[in-house]
Amino acid sequence: MPNVVKGSKQEKMVVVPYRPGRRVLLVFVLVLGVGASAAGGFMYGYTNTMRGQQTVVASQRELSEELATAQLENSDLRRQVAILDRSSVMDQRATEEVQSTIRGLRDRVAQLEQDIVYYRQVVSEETEDTGLIISQLDIDATREENRYRYKLVLRQQDADGDTFLTGHVNVNLVGTQGDEQQILALRDLSAEQDQLDIRLRFKYFQNIEGELVLPDEFVPERFQIAAVSLEPVEKNINQNFSWVVERN
Fold it and tell me: How far is CA 77 from CA 71, 82, 87, 229, in A?
């Protein structure tokens, strides 16, 4: 019996059977559990990693598609901008060409107008002292009130005696009646005239004469005479003659 100190606490001893195989089994089970846990953790991590990679790949694919679409839209927009730029350049060139043409036409018109003025002056100088002229206009009173005799003489300056002057003359009397101005054609005042444009045809001169009757309360002021010759020289004459009555 082993030595025991008197007064000390004594531990009870338990006798168990010796089983070395069970210990090995426990160790194996423990190792297997640790391995299974490690494998499970690895598979869980692997699965999450793969899912994350798939999500990333899907996001990358979606972003790639969006990028490709954006690149196509950008390329299309660039083409449209290029077309608009070319159209703008063409429009600008067309506008410049039109403006240049307009300036050229304006310059041409201005030059033609100057030429016309010059030629008119030349023709006027050449015909001023030749061809048709208004020689005289006489107005004589009669014994009857508002009735007058008139005589208009037109002649051909530098007539050669062989050439007829042809054309016409228009005679109007300007005056007032009440507070209004009136313009009366000689045809409406004189029974001797039945046309507004009185025909002219003569070699040396032509008299246009007769009597005219003024309307009541009409106050004459002046005659307007517009004469036109067609041959031998084209010429226009516009003259005003004051209303002057010769008393006998």
Answer: 10, 8, 15, 74
Q: Measured between alpha carbons, how far is 27 from 47 in angstroms, rounded to an integer?
A: 30
Contact present, 149 and 140 (Cβ < 8 Å):
yes
Cβ count within 10 A of residue 33: 10
pTM for the structure as a whole = 0.49
The residue type of 120 is R
Could you report how far apart the first and last alpha carbons of the chain are, in Å? 201
At 98, the amino acid letter reads: V
Q: Indicate the pairing of strand 147-157 with strand 205-213.
A: antiparallel
> How far apart, in whole angstroms, are the C-alpha atoms of residue 93 and residue 218?
67
For the stretch 158-201, pLDDT in tens is 877 788 999 999 999 999 998 899 999 999 999 999 999 999 99
Burial (CB count <10 Å: 0-12, 13-18, 19+), residue 134: middle
Q: How far is CA 107 from CA 98, 103, 112, in A?
A: 14, 6, 9
- Of 238, 240, 244, nearest to 132 (Cα)? 238
Question: What stretches of the chain show up as alpha helix (H) in DSSP?
Answer: 20-127, 186-189
